[in-house]
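Lecture notes, unit on protein representations.

Consider one protein chain, 213 amino acids long.
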Amino acid sequence: MTTSALSVGSVGDDASSGDAASTTSGEGTDAEADANDLESSGIDSAEDTTTAPAEGSSGGEDESTSDGGSVDECPNQTTCPMAEVIGEVSGDEGSRPIVFDGTEPTWVSFQVTEDNDSVTGEALEFTATLTSPVGFDFDLYVYRGPSGAGSGCGGQLEQSTSAGADDVVHMSWGEGGVANGGDERAWIAVEIVAKNGMCDPLAQWWLTIDGDT
């Protein structure tokens, strides 16, 4: 039986031999194709896995850039009635200056007092100096309220919007050469404005108030 089988396999019709060979070859080809498909599938899967983190990384950079841009935009979030009180100076006697700093637009207020009681009259005066940080430009708006008022909001305005490092406002009012016996102290409101609406949380401006100047 074994010899017969071998004989049939070797001496039989070419078609039979070809069929057997074709079948065996076809099975091998299909197996190789399946293996190739699996291998190809594995490569595609790895590529997909590599792509996902890349997209996530790109998104992180965009978010960081967006955050950086938004920090530099600094509109004034306060109003004059919300102004922070930073102290007082004498308008007609020597006193320590007020020194205040910040990085964003804001409102502050202070009082100028009348302290000279001599019969010789003396006007009340002060000078406000705003020094902007390098690379940024802040402007200075100063409002003097009327004597006896509890706020400088809506008062007489003086302003400085120079392009230089310092903006300076000087104000003077009250008695002339003779004392009038009244108390002409006043509240002052100051608005500090970023000229281009841009600032840096690490770049400080400085406001100095000198009395009796």
